[in-house]
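Objective 1b of the project was to move from sequence-level analysis to a structural picture of ligand recognition. The entry below was assembled by the postdoctoral researcher (A.K.) and checked by the PI before modelling. It contains the amino acid sequence of the target and the SMILES of the bound compound, NAP.
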Amino acid sequence: MSISITEKYSPLDLSRATVLLTGGASGIGLGLAENFVKAGSTVIVTGRRESALKEAQEKLPGLHIKVSDVGKVEDREELAKWAVEKHPELNILVNNAGIQRRVALAEDHDWPARQLEIDINCSGPVHLIDLLTPHLLKQPEAAIINLSSSLGFIPCAFGPTYGATKAFMHSWTVAARPSYAKSNIRIFEIIPPAVQSNLGGSHDYGEPTDEFCAAVFKKFTEGEKEIGYKASDEWRAPDRLGNDKIFQEQTEKTFNGKYKVFEK
Ligand SMILES: NC(=O)c1ccc[n+]([C@@H]2O[C@H](COP(=O)([O-])OP(=O)(O)OC[C@H]3O[C@@H](n4cnc5c(N)ncnc54)[C@H](OP(=O)(O)O)[C@@H]3O)[C@@H](O)[C@H]2O)c1
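Corresponding predicted holo structure:
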């Protein structure tokens, strides 16, 4: 399979797919889960709160749920073992779970919290890919979908660690594609712009979740490898000076005056 992002993958048969999607009780994860279910896939979603998973199951009958924290090594190992035993036809992994901490570096020195953000957003996806690749290689066709962010391309001053974790996921995904190119595993990246969800605390600005999920899911079914949407299609374009201008504008809008900064 070609590694070029301008060449599409051949479509997957989603009517026979089994999908493990992390962080699927709400937000973008639940929206993507709904699209997979509509396409006829068997879908297992994970999350830390059992109550939220049960609510998701009520909204989407047929959804399989599993309590699991992607930020913990032992949970990831247990999840991968459980998923393969319980759903041996598992062939799609969606690394969706993520958190965002909004911080002022001048007053926030909480290392455990920073480390948790890195563990959930970076260690989780990479470890799950390592754990499940041997199983995915045995399937007739398979896919891994990583969620990065427009903020992985243009960082946000209110979340330096968050943006960096998403840049990590973008870079990792691009760099991993050649290793999988001769295999049955297709490697996708979804790059959301701001989407209405609970990320970083409840917010209703950004793209409507349902519209966003339907649009990116369509691009995924068409085999597009690197999937942007509206602002993230602009932000992911490699234009250093243009991106610097957007960074300055966004910092003015979302950071300056709201967060404490270092002063001498
Ligand atoms: N919304 C946006 O504007 C936006 C933009 C760019 C990228 N993204 C990315 O899109 C993905 C989904 O975000 P979202 O906006 O849908 O956020 P969300 O509304 O906060 O939903 C995140 C979901 O992930 C689960 N989760 C969080 N930490 C977890 C963990 N350690 N283990 C397992 N599940 C966990 C949460 O459930 P529990 O709390 O019960 O675990 C929740 O159901 C993230 O990777 C995010 O970085 C979002």
